[in-house]
Design goal:
Elements: H1 6-62
Transmembrane segments: 32-53
Keywords: Membrane, Transmembrane, Transmembrane helix
């Protein structure tokens, strides 16, 4: 078998680079969507935990 010509290799390299770039963009998009959708739940949990912490501190200060 003979090695592929330069044109075929260049086409393969550019196709591979395009696939990698699309995969990277899809990964970044998925991370951004995850961050957007999980932020409200994180903030809600954080504020809820803070409220419980404050209640506990007040309860312990009364004793």
């Amino acid at each position: 078998m003979e090695p592929p010509s330069e044109g075929v290799t260049g086409l393969w390299d550019s196709t591979w680079a395009l696939m990698c770039r699309k995969s990277l963009l899809a990964t970044q998009r998925a991370r951004a969507l995850l961050a957007v959708f999980s932020a409200p739940f994180f903030l809600l949990g954080f504020s809820h935990n803070r409220a419980l912490y404050n209640l506990g501190v007040r309860f312990l200060q009364r004793r």
